Amino acid sequence: xxxxxxxxxxxxxxxxRFLRQITNALxxxxxxxxxxxxITLVGAQEMAxxxxxxxxxxxxxDVITFDHREERETEAENQxxxxxxxxxxxDDAMAQATRFRTSWQSEMVRYVVHGVLHLLGYDDREPQLKxxxxxxxxxxxxxxxxxxxxxxxxxxxxxxx
Length: 161
What we know:
Layout: E1 2-7, H1 16-29, E2 32-42, H2 44-55, E3 63-67, E4 80-89, H3 90-100, H4 104-119, H5 127-147
Parallel strand pairs: 1-2, 2-4
Antiparallel strand pairs: 3-4
Helix pairs in contact: 1-4, 3-4, 4-5
């Protein structure tokens, strides 16, 4: 398993070690056997640049998923694998948290779940597929919220000498 988390935003302090624990728990719950995943936390300005450069869309967005697998796993291999990147915008997480009356930490975890589901082949472009994906997303976010105190994502890590 190779999981890299990079924090390039300044809106909030993030405990990236704790985010790694949460993400690992998600990946284990989904029984993903092979993982090559990068998560980059950015601000709205950088997200808008990425959104325009790679998708041709104006403005910021909450999460962008890049799937880097060359080909899908075959049924014979009978294992799940992901190879991709998630760009997550903390400015958008804070705005959505206000809109949906939740915490920015919960929104950020939702974006991780959403991106991982996309890497597993979930699609949200059609209404029926979107409902299916949203149910899976909600179930996993609730599971993570019960398992972890997401407020700890905003606590700085104290290094012990």
